[in-house]
Design a protein that fits this description.
Layout: E1 2-3, H1 28-31, E2 35-39, E3 44-46, E4 55-60, E5 63-68, E6 74-80, E7 85-86, E8 100-103, E9 107-112, H2 114-123, H3 125-149, H4 154-169, E10 171-172, E11 175-176, H5 182-189, H6 193-205, E12 209-212, E13 215-218, H7 221-228
Helix pairs in contact: 4-5, 4-7, 5-6
């Protein structure tokens, strides 16, 4: 990982939580304090259990957040892209990160330290209110996912994951715009790699998806959606 300087006001990332609040005059004081970090693909930039070093905002790229589960196995809990926030679950509640995080491709991160974030929250009520709404939405998504996944079989969990990454990252030339290994798909779907491969193979034979290398493309969104409708189709 290395540092790189990017300027918030000239940033093209309109989805960034910070960029959306640059119209607030007080933000000028704080954006100059941020640190920019460039990660190569597979670089780990947050170690689970490490000391809290503020919040990360993805300027450009993709990342995954993971949490250690049973028998020390890492499970993917979130996939992120331009504009997403990473490290927020531990912020304000403790001194350590509750998750680990890896870059899924070459990624540029903006890091705001604990001290800077606390100053922003104390001095800019509009920003604080917006962040509170963000936390409420994330909590609602987590609760919905727990309830939904508890009643899904393996095929439904894999289908749900494919629909999720399709919504979040979109498709380019018929393929979802993210590289995930079959193991990563299994980790996120809460199953084994072998089971995930079998489901993907079955979906391919049914002409519901196509594959090119690691990439997967959805051919029939509505048909896949119909398989999990009884569990509610939440956008996460």
């Amino acid at each position: 990982m290395k540092e790189e300087q990017t300027v918030c006001y000239s940033c093209a990332n309109e989805n960034c939580f910070i960029k959306k609040h640059l119209h607030l005059e007080q933000m000028n004081t704080y954006v100059s304090k941020k640190q920019n970090i460039v990660c190569k693909k597979s670089d780990q930039f947050i170690v689970e259990g490490s000391s809290l070093q503020g919040l990360y905002f993805i300027c450009k790229g993709k990342a995954k957040t993971v949490k250690t589960g049973i028998n020390g196995r890492e499970q993917i809990v979130r996939l992120t892209k331009n504009g997403d926030i990473i490290g927020f679950r531990g912020f304000g509640t403790g001194k350590k990160y509750l998750i680990g995080a890896y870059a899924l491709e070459d990624t540029v991160l903006c890091n705001f330290s604990n001290e800077t974030m606390l100053e922003i929250l104390k001095q800019i009520p509009e920003f604080t209110y917006a962040l509170m709404l963000f936390y409420a939405e994330e909590l609602n998504k987590s609760e919905n996912n727990i309830r939904k996944i508890a009643h899904m079989n393996v095929r439904e969990r894999v289908v749900d994951l494919l629909l999720y990454i399709h919504r979040k990252f979109g498709q380019i030339n018929g393929l979802i715009d993210i590289d995930l290994s079959r193991k990563e798909i299994a980790d996120f779907a809460g199953t084994t790699e072998e089971q995930a491969i079998r489901v993907i193979s079955s979906l391919k034979k049914e002409a519901l998806i196509q594959t090119v290398g690691k990439r997967i493309g959805i051919l029939d969104v509505e048909e896949l959606r119909s398989e999990i409708m009884e569990h509610k189709y939440f956008s996460v």
